[in-house]
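Posting this for the archive.
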Amino acid sequence: MRRPWFVLIVWLAVSGSALHAKDRAACDLLVVGGNESGVAAAVQACRLGVKKVVLVNDIDWLGGQFSSEGVGAVDEWTTVNGKRTEFPRSGMFLEVAKAIEEVNRRKYGIAQPGNCFCARLTIEPKEAAKIFEDLVKPHVATGQLTVARGWEPIATTLDGKRITGVRFQKGGEKWEVAATLTIDASEWGDVIRLSGAKWSAGPDAKARFDEPSAPAQLTDDNRREMNPLTYCVVLRGSSKVEFVPQPEGYDPRRYFGVSKETQKEFEMVGWPKGVLRMNVPAFADTIHKDGPYSPPVNVYTHRRLVDALHLKRNYGDECLFLNWPVQDYPLDHWPKRVADELESAEKGASKKNVVELTPAQRRIVFADAKRHTLGLLHHLQNVEPKFRTLQLSDEFGTPDRLPPHPYIREGLRLEALTMLREQNLRTPHKEPKWTKVMPTDGVFGFQFNIDFHPTRRQFLKNNPASPWATIHTATRNWSTHTDRCTFPLRGLIPLETDGLLGAARNIGVSSIVSSAIRLHGQMMLCGQASATIAYVALKHDVQPRGIASNKEHIEETQRLLVTGVGGPGVLLWPYHDLAPDHPAFVAANMLSLKGIWRPDADSVFFQPEKMISREEWEGMLARLPAEVQNRVPTDVPSTRTAAVRAVAVAMR
């Protein structure tokens, strides 16, 4: 690969002198997007030793879902032995989770102060933003990492089918960054789209992947149907009773489905069958003593971050955020006001998928999503007095006191060398086991249900100028179970375009699978994996697709991830009982991916201290290359830990 100084010289010659030298930069690795995935990618690249890394974000805040999107309930859960529990944390996500617990202990004397319905681990957005600043700080201090804020990508530079750099804009300013490799971790995959790499957005027709839940065909009615976005609101306890003003266009009929207090009003509106209605109270005084997802369900504790009342703290410490299903903002059909504004900006824009819109056009959509969220808060303050002493937090520093980014569940999907599809993950069982096919080039383990919030907007009397509510479709909901899987290295590499890697949600999955791989931890590990591929590609002077086709390069990438560099190792094969500091962690992960150790089919536990049977031991030996078999001790080891470690040593 050509290094950045050479690329910059060619770029200067081709693009002319419209920009001055200070308006250009060159690097080995460019990461676009400052969300949790982008930060993980930039930090991982620096820890591995990439000499010059540039991280470009469109806003000031780093941290994505944890911070700038205001999703402070870190709700990565799975089901084990019939009970919901946290999916095992590893890699940089584990590092951040530990930092979150330390912040909470320092401030509140307890690691998990939320007593929240949706998660044990909670964090206030501003504190999360500081954690992510601390991650990048040491690398910025040495000059290895440059963090640029407030820049939006507007174009890419190509050498044939190889991306060589990205042009950005901030107001009237422009800036170009030449890069040997680029990772697109942006919220909407703008670099992928602008580069000409193949991508998709919206549903996949059944003919494409033969997914059980896919629509038979794409029509004008469903082609823009995606997991909705949500503008969260963060609320803090106050001594004042104060109502948030009615937002422009407020119509109370839109919010009667929020809680059971307005059940009769909801029924009187005349909504069609299936429109979402949450038949639960707005407020309940509870600590959810049986843990997350235990009753009573209510709006107030749904995503509470700090439970000041039961921690016996000042009410000013009370903190929660609203991310309630009725608050979701579907992306399939726009209300008339939004459609009219989009058409005024560009003829035909109202018919485009949100991914295809320009940043300025998306802000039209976001403005209406904000109005919808503020209307929900105004409604809650009317029906439940408890919400009248909860005021919008001012920690974001935004004029409207809302997060600088909406919570985005689905965006652009990269057309990658391999695409995970529904049948790869879906299971008929309520409790996850292993997926039918575990990719041998796995770079991080994951599991979450196929989880669609209501994807369609139902207008009253089918009139886009009328109030609307949300509705699920028959095949897109939040109840489809999946098995544990490992994400393939090939899923981060474009089908054709060189010099480019996907991260965040811009990866090789179908629309259905995207709903199961979008959480805080998954996104961090995705960025960490993408940066590790980039490092190995730079080290060996090959394109990322050259990594995917070379077994030694794949294993090098996996070993760097599972061993950990400057932090905990990444769980590649998602055992439930192997922490990164366990002596068997590296060996068990690597040997499971290679098929040398065969996990129990009916258990997600490795059981490291379990006595290994002669049958298991001889099976491992039989799957080893002949030259390795001769180096393995003949005596049967005592435990599974001893067995995998002995084989791993022999294979070196």
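The chain is about 30% helix and 15% strand. Residues 585-651 form one domain.
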